[in-house]
Automatic annotation (TrEMBL):
Gene3D superfamilies the UniProt entry points to: HUPs
Keyword Methyltransferase found: no
Record keyword Signal present: yes
Protein's UniProt name: DUF218 domain-containing protein
Biological processes per GO annotation: Gram-negative-bacterium-type cell wall biogenesis; peptidoglycan metabolic process
InterPro entries xrefs: Cell_Envelope_Assoc, DUF218, Rossmann-like_a/b/a_fold
Domain DUF218, first and last residues per copy: 43-169
Top-level taxon in the UniProt lineage: Bacteria
Organism in which the protein naturally occurs: Mycobacterium dioxanotrophicus
First and last residue of the signal peptide: 1-29
GO cellular component: a single term: plasma membrane
Entry keyword set: Signal
Length: 192
């Protein structure tokens, strides 16, 4: 990851965590929750991306997982839902993401695998019930900047309580900057 991209991911993590009180786990917020959103136990949902024919991860998916991992570290009480089917060489997007998280030392008991979805609409339809069943307060959605707008709407349409968005920059600079601004504001505004 380049220095600029690392800075961008770090800035989004910091903005989301500060807005929701994620860096002070034992300390009560000084005022009411931001925009009425409850960040006490968000589900971090990382959206899949097509695997290579040999079943290995494409760079975009790798970056999405690293971005989700950074957010998950700010919310140690939260599960991470990895979502994506579309198997290649016997491996699904979700299983590839789970394996990467485990390789990076993320605890297996915090990972929820949704490996049936074959589209963003299905990612939402299958992940929202998993987040609710896990007793979470809502969803922080992680994907790429060129995909975030459509994904946000799909998750809102599926009944997800959308708390925030976090996007790895993957488009041209103007798309990346515009989505970065939406990501920073997302803890304080309606999504979808």
């Amino acid at each position: 990851m380049t220095r600029r991209l690392k800075f961008g991911v770090a800035a989004v993590v910091l903005a989301v965590a500060v807005a929701c009180g994620g860096f002070a786990p034992g300390v009560a917020a000084a005022g009411p929750p931001v925009a009425g959103k409850d960040f006490s136990k968000p589900a971090i949902v990382i959206l899949g991306y097509g695997l290579k024919p040999d079943g290995s991860m494409r760079t975009i998916l790798y970056h999405r997982v690293l971005t989700g991992l950074a957010i998950a570290q700010a919310f140690p009480q939260s599960p991470v839902i990895v979502t994506g089917g579309n198997p290649q060489n016997g491996r699904t997007e979700a299983s590839a993401m789970r394996n990467l998280l485990l390789t990076l030392g993320f605890p297996a008991n915090r990972i929820i695998v949704e490996d049936k979805a074959n589209s963003t609409v299905q990612n939402a339809q299958f992940s929202v019930p998993l987040a609710k069943a896990a007793g979470t307060s809502g969803i922080i959605l992680v994907t790429s900047s060129t995909h975030q707008g459509r994904a946000d709407q799909n998750f809102a349409d599926a009944g997800g309580n959308m708390l925030a968005t976090v996007s790895f920059p993957d488009g041209n600079p103007s798309v990346n900057i515009a989505q970065f601004v939406r990501d920073v504001l997302s803890p304080m505004t309606a999504i979808g």
